[in-house]
From TrEMBL, chains A, B:
Its EC number is 3.4.-.-. This is Alpha/beta hydrolase family protein. Keywords: Hydrolase. GO terms for molecular function: hydrolase activity.
Length: 254, 254
């Protein structure tokens, strides 16, 4: 097992941000600035075309760290952020951009390309989790959650299906075609986000993916609005969901 | 305009509970024990066959009072709680019980009977709101929300459609047949609860009622489980929804 290599550290508003690498993988770990005891870990997957420190990632991480005292880790997906694109990445991105420019449906291309990225990303996530659990402030036995929408769901569903250390997850905003069969093997508590007026993902498709999870506790949050209009207040639900399932850490005294 | 007549007062855990009557209507008003300034008001509608002080009502009221500093009012629906049943009430209840005993669908009966109750209840709610706004701790201009599931939705949707003082509402767990056309006239922020495995309300029917609201901000919370298995954690969402839309009162200092 390899260790994470910390390359930079900053701190703001009670949150320590540490960049790390693990072999070819670049990541970031957000942690409470105070407190030395162990705390739960949330893995977050970013969306397609963005990266580990995109505003949505940093914003959600700060809420989970300051609200619950958790650690939050994000790694750049293959071909994203600090990581190089392969010739195949370039080709699929070009196809996607052509479809968008032509006003055609990007769904089939996203489903295919995200499925490919998930095959590369799942083993990276498992190695990252191994390494993060080697840190004394996380440890090998603490609760682990996963939070990823869009491409973060395409990677997170197959990861969660084979990773027993993940015990609660938030998914959403994806098509069911490549994921529904895998979702049927997932039984942990799930929160699932869907945009009721999504211009890319048909409503029935989003509902079908939510329906596929075998979890006894699963909650759909469907909001009026287009694909990119997920309301900001959903992060409040995410914080409460993980607090409920991973437990508040020592930071909150709970 | 008539005034509410307070008939009993108790206090526990920072919450004052006052029974009241307004003509033939029996109700209860829960308020913060401390604080003399004005605070927002949430009207809550109880479910069919229950009453103003059913555990779900008292539990939600305590959370809204202690969490947000709000006032919460519930009135017994016609034929419920302290209020007499008419011959028509008795007849419809008998038909419903026969259908349940025979294992038949109760949906059409509930839709019809709740529609009838709503016609009686809506003017009672409006008179109650008039009277409650005459109290100095509520006042004529403060924010007003409505929170009612099951029969509370059958009464609350037509009430909200004609009552401009209600500016945010939580509905759910009902059929669309008698309500969808009315819901199309409602534009205020809505949270809507649905049980994904409801044995009484077909999934498509619940989704159709949510879809009908014209609100720009509306959120569906669909949870795995049967009709009566709405998770307790949904009350946390309700508290945050009303805090967001009605504003926290002086109690929270926000």
């Amino acid at each position: 097992m390899h260790s994470v290599h910390f390359t930079a550290e900053t701190s703001s508003n009670g949150v320590v941000e540490r960049d790390f690498t693990l072999g070819e993988v670049s990541g970031v770990l957000w942690s409470p600035a105070s407190g030395s005891g162990r705390a739960p870990l949330v893995l977050m997957g970013h969306g397609g075309g963005t990266h580990k420190k995109a505003p949505a990632m940093a914003g959600r991480a700060h809420r989970l760290v300051t609200g619950c005292g958790f650690h939050v880790a994000v790694i750049d997906a293959p071909g994203h952020g600090d990581r190089p694109r392969t010739a195949y990445d370039e080709q699929e991105i070009a196809v996607m951009q052509q479809a968008m420019a032509a006003g055609e449906s990007v769904g089939p291309i996203v489903v295919r390309y995200n499925g490919h990225l998930a095959e590369r990303a799942v083993p990276e996530w498992r190695a990252t989790l191994d390494a993060l659990q080697g840190l004394p402030e996380i440890g090998p036995d603490g609760p682990v959650g996963y939070f990823g929408l869009n491409m973060g769901t395409a990677i997170g569903v197959p990861l969660t299906a084979i990773e027993p250390r993940i015990t609660a997850a938030i998914f959403g905003l994806h098509w069911p075609e490549a994921l529904a069969e895998t979702a049927k093997r997932i039984t942990i508590p799930i929160e699932f986000a869907l945009q009721w007026d999504d211009e890319h993902i048909p409503r029935e498709s989003g509902l079908a993916l939510f329906d596929a999870f075998a979890s006894k506790e699963k909650t759909l949050h469907a909001n009026a609005g287009a694909h990119k209009e997920l309301p900001r207040f959903e992060v409040d639900s995410a914080v409460r969901f993980f607090a409920r399932h991973l437990g508040l850490s020592h930071i909150e005294g709970a």
